[in-house]
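$ run holo --ligand "guanosine-5'-diphosphate" --emit tokens
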Amino acid sequence: MKIKSAEFDRSASDLKSCPNWNRPEFAFIGRSNVGKSSLINMLVERRNLALVSGSPGKTTLINFFIVNGSWCLVDLPGYGYAKTLQVKRADFNETVAEYLEKRENLRCVFVLIDSNVPPQPIDLEFVRWLGQAGAPFVLVFTKADKQSANAAKNNIAAFMKTLSTWWPELPGTITCSAKTTAGRDEILAVIDEGLAGGTARVW
Ligand code: GDP
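-- output --
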């Protein structure tokens, strides 16, 4: 997919104020500092698109960007402020929970996880919650350039091992780097597939 245009459309503070349109939506979420803004900018080849989401007053909102006029990239507020190990619904933004559970336009959630650290309980619990919520998702392991490929592989394998104790089928994974653009084509392929009416890959 070639990105021809990418524009900020609006922010929403709850499900009711989300846009009333038919555009398929692809959402990005992760702990703060996971590399979400860098990844979004890399994906759409704009230097500062995701800056909007970090501007004052916007960090707790759902931010919508229209890409190529036809689909929507949704920048969701991060999770990770919870002090407890269990991510209960209320431990992350209630609006985000509602969006992920109920938004009909949602085709795929890209859950960003730092490939440089061993599995973090907060990420595992969020993914577990998302699985229960029934949203289609893919795991995107970020900042893969920061360490050896083997070290990243080990962290990813450990993460997937935990998921395999919960679920018979595992979600798709993409390893990426905003620095080298690794993983960009894979993410866009998932979006292409979603636009064609398919669901997120599971393998
Ligand atoms: P956000 O808070 O999730 O939006 O994260 P940012 O995109 O602001 O990135 C957080 C920090 O990680 C910044 O210092 C980035 O320069 C750095 N970073 C983000 N992506 C990458 C990456 O792919 N590779 C490397 N080496 N650093 C990255």
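-- notes --
The mean pLDDT is 89.
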